[in-house]
Amino acid sequence: MPASGKQISVVDLIKSSAKRRIVLLGEHHDNMEHHRWQLQMITGLHSLDPQMVLGFEMFPRQVQGVLDEWVAGTLSEEAFLQRVNWDEYWSFDPQLYLPLFHFARMNSIPIYALNVDRTLIREVGRQGWGNVSEERKEGVSEPAAASEGYRQLLANVFMQHGENHAEGSDKELVQKAMAMPGFARFVESQQVWDRAMAQAIAEGARANPDAQFVAVLGSGHMMYDFGVPEQLADLGMPKPYVLIPWDPEFECDYIQKNFADAVIGLKAFRFSEQRGPNDGPRLGVYLDAGENGVVIKDIVPDSVAEGLGLKPGDLIVGMAGSKITEVEQVIDIVKSTHFGTWLPLKVKRADAMLDLVAKFPPQAEQSE
């Protein structure tokens, strides 16, 4: 417990969590141990009080009807994953999450879709929330302004692109990030994302006044009570109980008193074991939004990008035959690429236009 520095048992953690109206369970999306812990928490809370509602970041609200059908038991696993567009929308190995979904169905626990269409978040990052039409906003209300602490945290993410939130942030780099042209839009897109999920949680909690609402979402949306907790407060909801799983390879110095209500230590896994078998390879670049493309800020040593000869300052303008204008496009395309395949890129370097081919190794080679 960061606030007190005390350790408590899992049983006591479940008992204390059961007293809260809203509980947020964090995760690193590709870490199976985090999802096993989530199932343990949900099972324990349900055993104390079966009046429960679940919410998942993994689903956009337009598939709410499909979630209702799943809980009702009318869909097979295959049909469920197809109809929620799992591979397209979330893309992480469904085996990471299916035990949670099956537990909900076995116990007739309502599931709420917390997210919105990804294209909405991209549109906000590109042109700003104020320039998005009302019909495109999916009912999401005006987000509360980001606190200074959250802006600093997001600046660190903006510089590192979320590769490892446990790494410390250099103050000078953070200030540089906050001064970059794309940072304000990045913050705004994150705020809309947080607001959408907080609003779905608030609506679900109000629609089920006698039930506890347990939400499953990435840890970055709840650390230090930023993100979703800030938006819930703006919506007039009680403070959620924030529980974040931790891994031994991350430094504990990062955990301050206000980091979370509880931090759960879990067994460390090799990187290859943390990733699901269907996760794609990695290019190995740090990216930033640029004019007419996506800028490479830095290259990961010994990566596919380094072997390809990509350099900081290169502008990615095309990938797999598609025009590239947003960071999310690069992420989505690489995620959809398979080990052992090739990915054509069009890169602008100074005044030259380069046609390159990224050659991803077999999975066993990149996982080592």
Question: What features would you describe in this structure?
Answer:
- The chain has 368 residues and is an alpha/beta fold.
- The chain folds into 2 domains: 10-120 and 183-274, Rossmann fold (3-Layer(aba) Sandwich); 285-367, PDZ domain (Pdz3 Domain), CATH 2.30.42.10.
- The chain contains 15 helices and 12 strands.
- Strands 3-2-4-1-5-6 form a 6-stranded parallel beta sheet, with helices on both faces. Strands 7, 8, 9, 10, 11 and 12 form a 6-stranded antiparallel beta sheet that branches.
- It is globular.
- This is PDZ domain-containing protein.
- It holds the Pfam family Cofac_haem_bdg.
- InterPro entries: Cofac_haem-bd_dom, PDZ, PDZ_6, PDZ_sf.
- It comes from Candidatus Tenderia electrophaga.
- Residues 270-337 form the PDZ domain.
Oligomer: single chain
Shape: globular
Order of helices and strands: HEHEHHHHEHHHHEHEEHEEHEEHEEH
How does CATH name the architecture of the largest domain? Answer: 3-Layer(aba) Sandwich
| CATH third-level topology of the largest domain | Rossmann fold
Mean pLDDT, rounded to whole units? 86
CATH domain class of the largest domain: Alpha Beta
Beta fraction: 15-25%
- Secondary structural class: alpha/beta
How many angstroms does the end-to-end distance come to?
35 Å
* Rg on CA atoms, Å: 21 Å
Annotation field: number of helices: 15
Number of domains: 2
Note the main sheet. Answer: 6 strands, parallel
Helix content: 25-40%
Low-pLDDT ranges? 161-169, 270-278
Q: How many beta strands in the DSSP annotation?
A: 12
Pfam family, one: Cofac_haem_bdg
InterPro entries: Cofac_haem-bd_dom, PDZ, PDZ_6, PDZ_sf
Domain PDZ: 270-337
Protein name: PDZ domain-containing protein
